[in-house]
């Protein structure tokens, strides 16, 4: 092979290699573009679904407000004042919670639960809690269904009740275990015991006895 032929062959090979590299780069760039576009589409769809849910929640809450306003027409005196207050709270909550993330909404619910001690109501249900807070059952149920810590609304309520019961066991040494459980919102002593055992590994009575022993030891050490 002569010099000019070798040069031409070298140029052709270099062009082929350059073409292959260009195609690989273009293919990689194209894949990245498709991947980016797919993510953008997914994010857009997620936002659209979120907006649809929020609009649905607003519609349901406004419907509930209309029902309350209709009830106002049939009531008098204190009942009217109570329904007016409830209607006002519904309107405020629509604006306040509509655009909240799940974490923010959970923090808001937790604050309301502590302020009003709603969990002490033994018969509290998803429906009654939603009505009290001015939320839809769908959103409230979805919040607890997808929560990483609580398996359900009942699981959340029982944790709140157990924590209050522990506080009462400290503050009310003369109260019976049944009275403590009832005050905290448990329907029976057995349920109270089961939840304490589940969360702390001991019964309410064992918890109280442990407190008494700790107090006795502290008193003894102080006397010494």
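^ structure tokens above, recovered residues below v
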């Amino acid at each position: 092979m002569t010099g000019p032929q070798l040069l031409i062959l070298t140029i052709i090979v270099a062009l082929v290699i350059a073409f292959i590299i260009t195609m690989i780069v273009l293919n990689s760039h194209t894949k990245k573009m498709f991947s980016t576009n797919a993510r953008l589409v997914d994010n857009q769809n997620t936002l659209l679904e979120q907006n649809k849910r929020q609009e649905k929640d607003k519609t349901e809450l406004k419907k509930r407000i209309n029902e309350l306003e209709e009830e106002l027409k049939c009531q008098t005196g204190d009942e009217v004042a109570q329904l007016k207050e409830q209607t006002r709270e519904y309107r405020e909550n629509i604006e306040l919670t509509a655009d909240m993330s799940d974490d923010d909404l959970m923090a808001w619910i937790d604050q309301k639960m502590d302020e009003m001690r709603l969990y002490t109501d033994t018969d509290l249900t998803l429906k009654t809690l939603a009505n009290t807070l001015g939320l839809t059952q769908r959103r409230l149920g979805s919040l607890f269904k997808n929560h990483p810590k609580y398996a359900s609304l009942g699981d959340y309520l029982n944790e709140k009740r157990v924590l209050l019961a522990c506080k009462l066991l400290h503050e009310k040494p003369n109260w019976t275990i049944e009275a403590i459980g009832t005050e905290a919102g448990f329907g029976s002593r057995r349920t109270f015991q089961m939840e304490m055992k589940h969360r702390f590994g001991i019964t309410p009575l064992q918890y109280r006895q442990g407190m008494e022993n700790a107090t006795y030891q502290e008193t003894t050490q102080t006397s010494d």
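The first helix runs from residue 3 to 72.
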